[in-house]
Specification:
alpha/beta, six-stranded parallel beta sheet, seven-stranded mixed beta sheet, TIM Barrel, Rossmann fold, 19 helices, 2 domains, 476 residues
């Protein structure tokens, strides 16, 4: 069958944010494409974030008659996803529409009710469910026994099948079909965002080396799919994919998009050793928890090409960290950041404000910790109750989300929950962000680390986004 997979466009704000953090590369869609191609289907991927003209989009859509069009979406892009689904269903009324991803997995029935043009929702991991669904459509077989599927029966009623167990062995899955992705577009967008210094002609890609996280952060929606478990790919399998990406696609820059890459230090050690042994000479960035790193490991990661680590610090208030169920201490945060700096790896830190129960004093405690840590990069957001998270359940049960459209779930710059002092907290976090990027230590470090005109261009671009942000939030 001919299958089109679509990555919906982000909002203007999120696209600008991605330009200074990391490009949105739909590597999960490329993974689904790989299992479909393995079954002999013809697959194409369209990333609406990089399609530049309407004519280009129409050309891609008319490349062949597609039997199935599949989408993936998180909550911040679900509104634009609905628009794209309605447009394509109108253009190709006989084509079956499938939606997967975190939002639909958390709220499958609600999602199908909100967008009647959706024929199927793939709930949870789609690596097995999607090929089974395609086979059933192709052969006209019953859908009743396909685990992880939500669909409409002959009477138009929404039917939810049993959930599908998580994939047991991730090494059994084929490597993502990167040949279907617009690699040139990601190179142009993302070559300055990883935190390293390199030539503009190097190709960039994402890679998934594990799925899930054992953390219990109340604002995280990963449990909608992964149920607070983590499964690892073997080091040999990970490095084999890296080698393929280097040799076939000339990729040299890798974003490891695991929720916590260093959850198993032993595995990370072996991955780094293999990268060094193979002489791959790549640059890569990852996310980690502060309680899962040590200086010895960090120094090895640096030798293997790590040029940025992102830590979800979230708050400088021990009380708020408790509300979030982060299960880390301020001491652990400081130790991890200091060890990362000593290892020579740039530090990217995330803070979250506006949790239920947070006070203005808590915000000032976060500011104090931030200025003490002096990271290389900073991202801040207002807590967003994404479906699938404990925060969503907490807020929904109290009526805080009633009447709020999905367009308000616009991480990182909007707030959904109308909590006491939220307006002041929003203004404060905006001021803290601007204060950080205009502090003498940040400007001094930036000038000292400037290596090329490309790096200068990155900071000019970041300053432009920061200025737009300041104007939009009313900061003076």
């Amino acid at each position: 069958m001919n299958i089109l997979l679509v990555h919906p466009s982000s909002s203007f704000v999120l696209r600008n944010f991605s330009e200074i953090s990391l490009p949105e590369i739909p590597i999960h869609l490329a993974g689904i494409a790989a299992v479909l191609e393995r079954d002999g289907h013809v697959v194409r991927i369209v990333d609406l974030n990089v399609v530049e003209t309407k004519d280009e989009l129409v050309k891609r859509l008319e490349e062949m008659p597609f039997d199935i069009i599949g989408f993936t979406a998180t909550t911040p892009v679900i509104t634009s996803c609905y628009r794209a689904i309605r447009l394509l269903k109108k253009m190709f009324p006989a084509t079956k529409i499938v939606l997967g991803g975190w939002h639909a997995s958390a709220l499958p029935e609600k999602t199908m009710a909100e967008c009647p043009e959706i024929d199927f929702v793939v709930k949870g991991e789609g690596d097995i469910t999607m090929p089974e669904l395609v086979r059933a459509i192709e052969l006209g077989h019953s859908l009743a026994d396909i685990e992880g599927l939500v669909f409409r029966d002959a009477g138009g009623h929404i039917v939810r099948n049993e959930d599908r167990p998580l994939v047991k062995n991730l090494d059994d899955l084929p490597f993502p079909s990167r040949h279907l992705l617009p690699m040139d577009a990601y190179r142009r967008i993302g070559f300055t965002t990883v935190g390293g210094y390199y030539k503009k002609d190097l190709y960039i890609t994402s890679i998934v080396t594990s799925r899930g996280c054992t953390g219990k952060c109340t604002f995280c929606a990963d449990s909608a799919i992964y149920h607070r478990t983590c499964r690892f790919r073997s080091p040999e399998n990970v490095v084999a994919e890296i080698k393929e990406a280097v040799e076939k696609y000339n990729a040299r820059i890798f974003f490891i998009i695991d929720a916590n890459f260093t959850l198993s230090p032993k595995r990370v050690t072996r991955i780094c050793e293999l990268i060094i042994e193979e002489g791959l000479h790549i640059l890569w960035a990852c996310a980690a928890r502060v309680d899962s790193v040590n200086e010895e490991l960090l120094r090895l990661m640096k030798r293997a090409g790590c040029v940025r680590i992102s830590y979800g610090v979230e708050s400088g208030s021990p009380r708020v960290l408790g509300l979030m169920e982060k299960h880390v201490s301020i001491r652990q945060i400081k130790d991890a950041v200091q060890a990362t700096k000593r290892a020579g790896i740039p530090v990217y830190i995330y803070f979250v404000y506006g949790m239920p129960g947070e006070t203005i004093q808590d915000v000032y405690m976060s500011r104090q910790l931030l200025m003490e840590l002096k990271p290389d990069y900073l991202t801040q957001s207002i807590a967003t109750p994404f479906p699938g998270s404990e925060l969503y359940n907490h807020a929904a049960s109290r009526g805080w989300l009633d009447g709020k459209p999905w367009s308000r779930y616009n991480y990182p710059f909007d707030h959904v929950m109308e909590l006491p002092q939220i307006a002041e907290i929003s203004r404060l976090q905006s001021k803290i962000l601007i204060e950080f990027y205009t502090r003498p230590f940040f400007i001094k470090n930036t000038l000292r680390n400037m290596r090329s005109v490309h790096h200068l261009w990155f900071y000019l671009k970041a300053a432009r986004v920061l200025l737009k942000y300041a104007i939009s939030t009313g900061i003076r």
